[in-house]
Amino acid sequence: KAGVTQTPRYLIKTRGQQVTLSCSPISGHRSVSWYQQTPGQGLQFLFEYFSETQRNKGNFPGRFSGRQFSNSRSEMNVSTLELGDSALYLCASSRFPPTDQETQYFGPGTRLLVL
Amino acid sequence: AQKITQTQPGMFVQEKEAVTLDCTYDTSDPSYGLFWYKQPSSGEMIFLIYQGSYDQQNATEGRYSLNFQKARKSANLVISASQLGDSAMYFCAMREGLGTGNQFYFGTGTSLTVIP
Fold first, then answer.
1. Which residue, A21, A31, A42, A89, is the most exposed by fewest CB within 10 angstroms?
2. Shortest Cα distance from A54 to chain B (angstroms)?
3. In the 8-state DSSP scheme, what is residue A84?
């Protein structure tokens, strides 16, 4: 079974630009979550999608948005990039609702560098 | 207050020895799950082990075991017979309210280095 895939793996942008990251979950998984990982803030939850609907949202500004398609693939968008948006963006998928032992399976991440 | 606290930024262990990575958590929800992940330098988060709040026994998965002390709100990871490939960042995470969502709270991680 193929794992979670994320594209692109690496990205360099300049301040003020926008970026779109893509995530394909494990086949059969309908829940997709996004996390931002930085050395200073660690791993922070961005949002979770299920059935094309955002279920949960972390404490991030409106510049961070996402969506989910009918095939469960998800994209996240960051507009008006700032230097502080440089991070590893991780996508995770799971079945939904999760059983008590259900874990999230993470993709390899997209490393975004904002110059 | 932090939901997950990992107080050991870095740990060293001799190859073939056992090591314990500490994790304490904070929640008022009676239903929760605790997870440990390994993150090598490549960046991918690898699931290691799970402990449910209602589980009576400590979880074990191969060389990994979880020392779950509910009253103390701790969920320490024990790695037995350390191998060089165990060198990585280790994250403790929690999901509250079983069945209601997939938001995970992560600790700041512990960097483990296995010495030959």
1. A42
2. 11
3. G
